[in-house]
Amino acid sequence: MDQNLLRSYLSTVYELPSPTGLLRVSLDGDVSTDPKTLPELLQRPFAILTAYNPRSMLLPKRVNEVRHQVLRDLLILGVYRVESCLGFEDEPEGVWREPAWLVHGMDRDESISFGRVFRQNTIVICRNGHPELVVTDPTCDDVGRTFLGNWRLRS
């Protein structure tokens, strides 16, 4: 995977809903962070999935919205608890913002399958208090290749 793209993915800020309010996090935190000190949400298994802009190809807003709604419907039919979240670049001149779904309790293999079906370059999963960026598009890298991250709480 291109190193600039990887850095961009790891530094993406996610706004995640939690019982205590909105959490702003990224995957570029310190290795020394003990997962037990993180907010409860970040200690549980989940996936962050989107259907927007497959293979980084910009689609019209309406097309993205329909794809995203289909993804949500399939997740709900799969009996997952799904909540809206958002990913964005945390740069003063950054304009990229992409809606996503926080999917509670989804395992790695099924998450990868959804990423592949909706032609995403990568997905984010959380296992054992650690985030993982997982490749789901074979044109980027081997499907399933994982880049380990560490949660960084943002303000």
Describe, in short, the structure shown:
This protein has 155 residues and is α+β, with helices and mostly antiparallel strands. It contains three helices and nine strands.
Which terms would index this structure?
3 helices, alpha+beta, globular, about 160 residues, 9-stranded antiparallel sheet
Descriptive notes:
By secondary structure, the chain is α+β, with helices and mostly antiparallel strands. The chain contains 3 helices and 9 strands; from the N terminus they run αβββαββαββββ. The chain has helices spanning about 5-10, 60-75, 110-115; strands at about 15, 25, 45-50, 80-90, 95-105, 120-125, 130-135, 145-150, 150-155. A 9-stranded antiparallel beta sheet has the order 8-7-6-3-5-4-1-2-9. A hairpin with a 6-residue loop joins β1 (about 15) and β2. The N and C termini lie far apart (about 30 Å).
Helicity range of the residues?
10-25%
Structural domains: how many? 1
Number of strands: 9
Strand percentage lies at 25-35%
What's the N-to-C terminus distance? 29 Å
C-alpha geometry? globular
The average pLDDT score comes to 95
Number of helices: 3
Adjacency order of strands in the biggest sheet:
8-7-6-3-5-4-1-2-9
Structural class computed from helices and strand pairing: alpha+beta
Uncertain spans, ≥5 residues at pLDDT below 50? none
* Element order: H for helix, E for strand: HEEEHEEHEEEE
Rg:
14 Å
The biggest beta sheet reads:
9 strands, antiparallel
